Amino acid sequence: MSTSKEIKEMVKEKYGKIAKQGTEENKDSCCGSGPSVISSCCGDSKIDYSIFSDDYSKKEGYVADADLGLGCGLPTDFADIKPGDTVVDLGSGAGNDAFVARSIVGEKGRIIGIDMTPEMIEKANKNKEKLGYKNVEFYLAEIESTPLEDNIADVVVSNCVLNLSPEKEKAFSEIWRILKPKAHFCVSDIVLKGELPEALRRSAEMYAGCVSGALQQEEYLNIIERTGFEKIEIKKSKKNNLPDEILKEYLTGEELSRFRNDEIGVFSITVVGFKK
Questions:
Q1: CB 187 within 8 A of CB 270
Q2: What is the pTM of this model?
Q3: Cα separation of 10 and 2, whole Å?
Q4: Distances in whole angstroms, Cα of residue 107 to Cα of each of 85, 114, 135, 229
Q5: Helix (H, G, I), strand (E, B) or coil at 109
Q6: pLDDT tens digits along 109-166
Q7: Torsion sign over Cα 239, 173, 77, 205
Q8: Long-range contacts of residues 139-145, Cβ cutoff 8 Å, at least 24 apart
Q9: Beta bridge pairs of residue 113
Q10: Would you put residue 80 in left (φ > 0), alpha (ψ -120 to 50) or beta?
Q11: Consecutive H or E run containing 186
């Protein structure tokens, strides 16, 4: 079983490669290009990192060069960000959510992006320089241990990143630390509902990188509650349908129909929680 450090290194290597590609290339990102989150040898399988992503293109502040198709929701839609807010984006990638948030906070606000992949930070900073933003900053750091001071953020957002962390409790504790009292987070993430057949789950992980590290929804919400957050609410939940060619390998026709109709499978959720 991989250690926390090994998992982080694999994530960093894979997302470093993705940072050098565009959104369309990421749809066909092959495991063979390097160790993936879920396997050091994926053979001929391909991981589609964009399978769960939502369309940002009509959002104010959208920057095409910052959209690598790696999200699984639109956390800024539900984050109740206000002009002048300080917003921290954990796992900020090339800056997609950060720049959308910047369009809301305006000149008087502040946007801070945190990412552990040097290539992503480099890409985000290049995008920022093109835009000429003076109140957007990107820092190279792990989301479980940021260089930020206590009680700095009005809102923390994150998009399909916490599920990849092997230390989710530490990540949510860090969110708590950097939030101001009574402030809140809004994250989009991948969770599981019900028990997927083990072989199907492994195949799903090989197909969609975000499935790796995903917890049962109840366990995910319990971590948030144990951290101390209150008024926890799922703002949006969407079932992500895996391709039939994967499902048919492991499910009979009757099982496939039941799987499609039941509340069992891989879900994208957007959840908010408030610091006491």
A1: yes
A2: 0.87
A3: 10
A4: 10, 20, 7, 30
A5: coil
A6: 999 999 999 999 999 999 999 999 999 999 999 999 999 999 999 999 999 999 989 9
A7: negative
A8: 139/112, 139/113, 139/114, 139/115, 140/115, 140/116, 141/114, 141/115, 141/116, 142/8, 142/116, 143/90, 143/91, 143/114, 143/116, 143/171, 143/174, 144/170, 144/171, 144/174, 145/170, 145/174
A9: 89, 138
A10: left
A11: strand 179-193
Would you state the structure tokens that stand for residue 180, as one six-digit string?
Answer: 């101001």
Give which of 192, 183, 225, 194 is closest to 210, Cα–Cα: 192
> Side chain identity at 77, as an amino acid letter?
D
| Token representation of residue 270 | 């957007």
Paired tokens of 124: 């985000």
Q: What is the C-alpha end-to-end distance of the chain, expressed in Å? A: 36
Dig out the tokens for 183 from the structure.
């402030």
Domains in the chain, CATH or no CATH each = 4-274 (3.40.50.150)
pLDDT, tens digit (0-9, with 9 covering 90-100), for 144-153: 999 999 999 9
